[in-house]
UniProtKB/TrEMBL annotation:
Homodimer. Residues 89-217 form the GST C-terminal domain. GO terms for molecular function: glutathione transferase activity. This is Glutathione transferase. PANTHER family: GLUTATHIONE S TRANSFERASE D10, ISOFORM A-RELATED (PTHR43969), GLUTATHIONE S TRANSFERASE E13, ISOFORM A-RELATED (PTHR43969:SF8). Glutathione binds at residues 41, 53, 55, 68, 113. InterPro entries: Glutathione-S-Trfase_C-like, Glutathione-S-Trfase_C_sf, Glutathione_S-Trfase, Glutathione_S-Trfase_N, GST_C, Thioredoxin-like_sf. Residues 2-83 form the GST N-terminal domain. GO terms for biological process: glutathione metabolic process.
Length: 221
């Protein structure tokens, strides 16, 4: 069998979400680094595979699949021994999808990417308070998701957990998760840190946090 190829870089949260999925599935794959600092995602060869010039990208045979959420759903559906990480039950799946769309639009795009771009790529040293508020609002939502359940979409670990932990473990570079204010969110983070393959996320998350910490900024407004 030809191994799937994951294009990405460890500092990228959505790449780490896919790496957690691959580890959970124990699926062998090749990993090709795309250095975003050197704009390698804009190479002609890469743009042919992903005109959106984002990582992660999964190449599996003739298929090129972009977007971490689409990739994770594909991987579990194609290679999972069972459907536990992405349930076939429609109601359970809808909740997993809900959490992943939330991660994509609210957590990653609104809270994380905009701020990370300002600091890491545009070299801004002042950021508006509203960008910090977007992060606490995201934490508020995740805390509210938890009622009695263990994971973000029920009592079973799913790809929605991989998605959300990848961005939340990066957001802590800007706003630490206060265990007193967010007890359920904090407990969930600790739970995921116990996964035997959690290094697939933590190594890159530490790189991301270090990169942010190396660029001090002040909050204005
Ligand atoms: N929603 C997408 C986000 C992908 C994304 O924006 N990736 C960033 C890195 S974290 C990227 O590739 N940026 C480079 C670019 O847009 O050129 C996903 O989940 O895969």
């Amino acid at each position: 069998m030809v191994k799937p190829i994951l294009y990405g870089i460890d500092a990228s949260p959505p790449v780490r979400a896919v790496k957690l999925t691959l580890a959970a599935l124990q699926l062998p794959y090749d990993y090709k680094i795309v250095n975003l600092m050197n704009k390698e995602q804009h190479s002609e060869e890469y743009l042919k595979k992903n005109p959106q010039h984002t990582v992660p990208l999964l190449e599996d045979g003739d298929a090129n699949i972009a977007d971490s959420h689409a990739i994770m759903a594909y991987l579990v559906s194609k290679y999972g021994k069972d459907d536990s990480l992405y349930p076939k039950d429609l109601v359970k799946r809808a909740l997993v999808d809900n959490r992943m769309y939330f991660e994509s639009g609210v957590v990653f795009a609104n809270a994380l990417r905009s701020l990370a771009k300002m600091i890491l790529f545009l070299g801004k040293t002042e950021v508006p308070q509203e960008r910090i508020d977007a992060i606490t609002e995201a934490y508020d939502f995740v805390e509210a998701f938890f009622k009695d359940q263990t994971y973000v979409a029920g009592n079973q670990l799913t790809i929605a957990d991989f998605s959300l932990i990848s961005s939340i473990s990066s957001l802590v570079a800007f706003v630490p998760v206060d265990a007193a204010k967010y007890p359920k969110l904090s407990a969930w983070i600790k739970r995921l840190e116990q996964l035997p393959y959690y290094a697939e996320n933590s190594t890159g998350a530490q790189q991301f946090v270090a990169a942010v910490k190396s660029k001090p900024f002040t909050v204005v407004g």
